[in-house]
Amino acid sequence: MREYHCLLQLLCPDFPLELTQKAARIVLMDDAMDCLMSFSDFLFAFQIQFYYSEFLESVAAIYQDLLSGKNPNTVIVPTSSSGQHRQRPALGDAGMLDGVEASLFYQRLENLCDRHKYSCPPPALVKEILSNVQRLTFYGFLVALSKHHGINQALGKQSSL
User: Which residues of the chain have a pLDDT value below 70?
Assistant: First the structure.
């Protein structure tokens, strides 16, 4: 990862390390940041992170909301009959590994792309990725984005403009 960051600094001396680290995390696990990675794997992950960084930040928030059980359409109505609040059971590690339901995740992402003006991957390609699984983790989603041939082609067309 550090060598790729040095290459990026040849083009832009003040290129942020954080962006390179985020791209490396897509290819490698957090605890394996010192391992070797192929240039093509890094490049695909880097371009996803570079072009879609604002989108990915919003997607991370959506994923966390779904993981914690928050619904954007939920209306909380206070009642005077009980002063106690019901609490959700803790998700624990098992909930984190299971991920979220892919169809619900896609609905929220579709709404996100409709509402915001920043760059998003083509919605049809995101739908294609999410239609192949029932549940997924955020990391799994990032890996699928970076390895999807159609998304990489779409990014290639953007960079040649």
Answer: 29-35, 71-97, 157-161
| Span 19-41, pLDDT tens digits | 888 888 888 865 555 667 888 88
Residue whose structure tokens are 């059971």: 89
Query: Which pLDDT belongs to residue 85?
Result: 37
Neighbouring residues of 61: CB distance < 8 A, sequence distance ≥ 6: none
57: how many CB neighbours lie within 10 A of its CB?
Answer: 10
Residue boundaries of the structural domains of the chain: 1-51, 52-71+91-161
Structure tokens at 143: 């890996």
pLDDT tens digits, 93-104? 444 457 899 999
Q: Which two tokens stand for residue 8?
A: 């990026």
Cβ atoms of residues 9 and 15 within 8 Å: yes
Are the CB atoms for 20 and 13 separated by under 8 Å?
no
Angle, CA 93 vertex, CA 92 and CA 97 arms, to 5°: 130
Give start and end residues of each alpha helix (H) in 13-161.
Answer: 17-27, 39-51, 53-68, 92-98, 102-115, 123-131, 138-147, 149-159
Closest-CA residue to 131 (of 112, 109, 158, 113): 109
